[in-house]
Amino acid sequence: MKLDIKEIPFSRFGSYFCISEEKDSNDIYIRDVHGGDDAPSRLFKISLLEDGVEREFEVRATEVSIQFYIKGHKEAAAEIILPNENELHIQVQNGELRLTADKGKYDSIMELQDGMFEYHIYPKELKLMVLNLEGTMNVQAPWNIIGNDFIEICLSKGHFTLESYQTVYKEKEYLPFQEGKDQVAKLYNDWFQSMKPLQADDEYLPSIERAAYITWSSVVHPHGLLREPAMYMSKLWMYNIWSWDNCFNALNLGKEHPELAYSQLKIFMDTQDESGAYPDFVNDKFISYNCTKPPIFAYVYGQLMQKNDYFKERSRIREVYESTKKVMAYYGNYRTFEGRLPHYKHGNDSGWDNASLFHEGMPVEAPDLASFLINSYDILASFAEILGEKEEAASFKEKADSMFNLLMERLHDEAGFYGRVGKDAERIANRSSLILRLPLMIAYRLDKTVADGLVADLEENFETQFGLATESPSSPYYKENGYWLGPIWAPVTYLFIHALKVNGYNDAADRLRKKFLDLTLEGGMAENFDPFTGKGLVDTSFTWTSSVFLQLLHEQYGDD
């Protein structure tokens, strides 16, 4: 695959290193994504020199390596690979490759011995060992009391490495450049084959290549607060692991990579607050409880059990079961006023950050949240049966019945579902957000006329050439590139397709699946998409989009 590093960063499975081109300046940086997306990530700006003069250059990147060509030259001046998670290798063949540090006040580099420089990066609590394995390395870094004024490293005709670590460097033997490149190629090919449906048509190959690479290259290894390998949402802008995003990534991984899939869930079960709330997101340095996303762990785990017997192991079911019970208690104890349904305290709680449902204020009783919880109670009842917890199974069933009755009483009338807002729980008049149609997830509980009405509503008011708009295009709230005010999102698309499929609306499910698969050929694996042009929007290298695409593609070809 020809990789556009302006759209998709160059990286590899397990690594915090990545290389990307900035859209505004077109500068290319070696970056590091420790610390999450609020931390600085730029390490070095890359430039090429010939006879000491900076030259324009071109980039040719694949899944395995990234090459740099001085314009007009046929042979690569330099090449970079990531043969191991903490190692970045550079081979320079023609001209010079210059690394200019994007440094902070105290950042400093020092020569420990010939060809061995240690770079201390204070804001990231990170160290880099810069090694000259064979070649010429010239470091300019004038000292000024508490740090270097600037740092420039020029490399020519040889093999060089940057290795990252937190405390101490341990000397080691490094693979020759070509052996390291071959090692990465094998690792990636194995991953690609595990992601590609056996019978997939060539028409979807560009999307398969993007999705396979994005999911592979967006994983980081355990470090700091991350005790499991984590598939970040992206290494472009949004480099954290978010709940509920993690669940869609786990779903795609479940069949071929069950342990990695379970790790995506376990990260949040291991960081669950004593109140029962999952964090909003986690990275190696920080855990945020500002918001808590929709409770879909049980929903996803039930599907994972159908993919691989690994998930039927009783100890794992028990762990998910006990953790989900705490989540449900959290909504009952801390998100429910007496006689009402559980509420959101911010649009971010729902995952639909700026949806029109939330424009009047907070808190909001929303039918999607009630539906997620009802569905979770129903699944918990089935888990309880498996685990021999007969009384708890009956209790969960009663809670599901009770919440369903309250949902239909408080948030439904002859015109459909709606929300309530504020301390007095006043009706929200606006009903133009797609979020209000998510009770289709529990169509197995709805009167058929209600479910049929939801399906007809989707087709008449939300379905476009490319799929389901998140805000009705006829709504005054609809906004081009409006995040949750119109653009198509992969996870929501999956939720509706799955709900349609399991509740007998197969034609609609198949039609929306095909539209989403085709959409990725137009807009790539972006965070979201314009519903009328298919253009990819916001972050263009998103894992949950990639995971949903691969999941739906496997379903399309009967592989799942």
UniProtKB/TrEMBL annotation:
Keyword Hydrolase found: yes
Q: Report the source organism.
A: Planococcus shixiaomingii
Q: Which InterPro entries has this protein been placed in?
A: 6-hairpin_glycosidase_sf (IPR008928), 6hp_glycosidase-like_sf (IPR012341), Glycoside_hydrolase_63 (IPR004888), MGH1-like_GH (IPR054491)
Q: A Pfam family this protein belongs to? A: MGH1-like_GH
Task: Give me the segments passing through the membrane.
Answer: none
- Mannosylglycerate hydrolase MGH1-like glycoside hydrolase domain segment(s): 239-545
Gene3D superfamilies, alphabetically?
A: 1.50.10.10
Q: Which UniProt keywords apply?
A: Glycosidase, Hydrolase
Protein name, please? Trehalase family glycosidase
Q: Which domain of life is it from?
A: Bacteria
* GO terms assigned for molecular function: hydrolase activity, acting on glycosyl bonds
Family, as annotated: Belongs to the glycosyl hydrolase 63 family.
